[in-house]
């Protein structure tokens, strides 16, 4: 039910459901209510879910946390809130990629993700963390000539 409310962006219905208590923040596929809210680009719902007690470090079936989603969708404001609520930038997905890697690769050389990359670096993300194919965010930005992102990583 909570997932339907998030899909519909039914904030009053979600608020009512939260007030009655949420038994499960994760569906049968390992997808959390928070992941869904972030993929629907609804920061207000994401904040409601976090404030209601959803674990900000839950991982989906690919091992991605809310911070990976923030990195992909370039949502630096909600990412900052998640970090303040205990979001862990060192959790790697099933490919060994931490949220910083996702932010760097999602930039695609346009300089659009510099702010979230900077946020992650300032919050302690490791630009030299190697994934399962032994690539780091720093290496990727340099090899792909993502100059603005590379400058943010330094």
UniProtKB/TrEMBL annotation:
Record keywords:
ANK repeat, Repeat
Q: Which domain of life is it from?
A: Bacteria
Where do the ANK repeat units fall?
29-61, 62-94
Q: Which residues cross the membrane?
A: none
Which InterPro entries does the record associate with it?
Ankyrin_rpt, Ankyrin_rpt-contain_sf
The protein's matches in Gene3D superfamilies, at most eight in alphabetical order, are given as: Ankyrin repeat-containing domain
| UniProt name for this protein | Ankyrin repeat domain-containing protein
């Amino acid at each position: 039910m909570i997932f339907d409310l998030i899909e519909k962006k039914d904030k009053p219905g979600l608020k009512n459901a939260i007030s009655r208590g949420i038994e499960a923040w994760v569906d049968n596929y390992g997808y959390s209510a928070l992941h869904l809210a972030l993929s629907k680009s609804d920061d207000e719902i994401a904040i409601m879910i976090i404030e209601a007690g959803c674990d900000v470090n839950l991982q989906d079936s690919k091992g991605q946390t809310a911070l990976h989603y923030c990195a992909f969708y370039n949502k630096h404001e909600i990412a900052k809130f998640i970090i303040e609520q205990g979001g862990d930038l060192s959790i790697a997905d099933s490919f060994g990629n931490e949220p910083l890697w996702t932010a760097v690769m999602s930039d695609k050389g346009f300089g659009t993700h510099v702010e979230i990359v900077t946020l992650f670096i300032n919050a302690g993300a490791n630009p030299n963390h190697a994934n399962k194919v032994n690539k780091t965010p720093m290496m990727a930005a340099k090899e792909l000539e993502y100059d603005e992102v590379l400058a943010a990583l330094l």
